Structure formats: C-alpha cells, structure tokens
Amino acid sequence: MPYDWEASRNRIMGTFFGTGKIDRVPYFPLACEEMICRITGKTYREIIASPKNYANAAITTFEFLKADTISIPTAYAGPGEALAFAEANDKKESIKWFDYKVFMAKQGVVCKTEEDIEKLEIPDHRKISVWDTCISALDIVNKKIGMGGLSLGIWSVVQELRGVQAYKDMRRNPDLLLKLCEKVYESQMDVLNFYQEKVGQIGAIFFTGYSFNKHMMSFEDAMKFEGQFIKRIQKKTNAMIILHNCGTSPYFKEVCEEIDLLAVNGSHPLDIEYWVNFKEKFPKVTIIGANIDVSRELLNGTPQDVENKVKENITNLAPGGRYIVGPICCLPWGVSLKNIMAIPKAIKKYGTHPLKFND
To answer: CB 3.0 to 4.6 Å from 161: which of 55, 92, 111, 154, for a disulfide?
Structure first.
C-alpha cells in the first residue's frame, strides 16, 4: 500500500494553522545523512551521487520512520554551506568526507584571518555540485509527494567558517563579525533564490537559530548577529519561519516576543511545565518537539520509556492543537530501531483524534 503523503500534508498544515481537522498528532523527525545511510544501506557518496538517488533515499527513510515530513538534510546551513564557501574560496582541503555520514569542515579554517573575511567570496550554489544535487533532489521530492522544504541559518554557518574565534570577535571586533554575518546572509539568499528558481515559491523556512541559546550568547547578541537577518529574510520572502534550537537553554519565549514565528523546534527545557506555559503564552506558535531529547530516553532507555515520554508530551501539549511530536536533534546512529519506532507507535496510541490518554 503506497504511503499516504497527502494525509501527512493535511496533518502538518492543519496543525500549523490550527484547523483542528486532523486525524492524529503529526510526526516530525530530523533524520540526517547517517540515518538515511543506516536505513537504506548505502554510503553517503552513493546517496549523493545523483538527485534521483538522494530523493529516493530520503523518501525511503522518512516512510520507514512513518514520518509526516521529509527533508534533504545536506541542504542545510551547516556543513553544506561550509563546503560551498570552501569551494568558492579555494579551501577544499578544509572538508573531510566520510562513508556513512555527511562531510565535515575543519571549523575556523575558511575564515581564519580578518583578511579571509574581507576577501570572502559568496558562493554561487548553482555551480556547487553538492548543492545542485540537493536542490534538484528537493525538486524531485516536491514533484513526487508535494513536500520538502529548505533550511537556512546564519550563526550555524558563522561557526563553520570562523570557529571559536567568532565568540571572541563578539567583544573584540563586532564590526568584523557583522561583516561575516552579512556575507553569510548573502549566501543564504543565494540558496533561497536557487531553490525558488528550481523548485518554486517557498512557504516555510526551517531556520537553525543556534545563536538563540543562553550558553552561546546574550539574547541581545543573538538578535544582533542572527535575529535581524531572520527579520530581513521574512520581509523579502514573506515566508513563515520554524525556529530550531537544539541547545539546553534556548531563548524561545524571548524570540517569540521579537519575531513572528510559525513554530519552535527544540528539546529543552526538559520541564514539561515550561512548554505548557509557552503554549498558553503563544497559542498560535506550533510546538515541535518540547522535551523529547534524543540523548535521553531514545538513546539510553527502552521502548516503554520512549512511549511514556511521547505520551507526556501529547497529553500536555496536543489538546487544542498546534503540537507536533519531534525528537530533537537528529536521530543519532547509536539509537536502537526499536526505540525509534516506539515513537510512531506511541503517536498512534495516544495522538489519534479524538485524543484519549488511558493506558
């Protein structure tokens, strides 16, 4: 029986816009390259060898997980952008490739010096083979199942290019750091334009707002070095923003006071009461995740532990809508498949409408 992606679209859209006309709580897992390799049995180079390979591998993976969303994870403001900048600035040696996970950049190599930032060339993503493959794969996914969006970010890329020096720059040379942020923003706009040329108009952007965490920087600095760029992207595109932060002390409430968000995506704070209060304060902002942390019950617990955690989230946050189950962050290699598959089972058990919470 073919996978019912139309039902998935209805669940996601109905939840985001609070229509109430959905059959169950949606499921939004983050399955990165290593999970796609694990489920398909292919190496990363095999997967990324062509847009068709990547699209089919992604569809296979997210259907196996019984997800209601899908992504091409390399099309993300992290290693993929580091590679684009490395290729555009003759620093390909800073990229290391692996068999069963995404390539990684040596952080801080591309923009090691101030001169590197001053002379930094903005990549043309159409000329970067990996990006052409990813955007073309997104086009295939969209044509096949009508889903598949784009991930952007500023600080996640700054960290790749500048490394720990970026945190020193915040105090010692903020103007230089802002110059780098501006160049990253230009590159992100190029990614967005490339997506719209090949796939079509963007409706929602999954934004990796890594700066919005108390352990990273102050909220004022987060707005200065990332938040202002989110606002500019919103103004230029009219796209809705899903803000992701996988840190342990995120500024979700603070950022919702400053930026109009469609949804927040995180696993902390772990106290479910924080999320109950968040839902009361921001009733039109969808919560994706809440306190389902991949490094806790999923990694070290049993399927029953996972079920209990999903139940806790659905029980407290699904009534009234605008809640999506989502373990955060990416499902790691070491998590047992039994624990992973306990999530959709728990959603079916506790998240089917009308909601019932008896064991």
So the answer is: 111
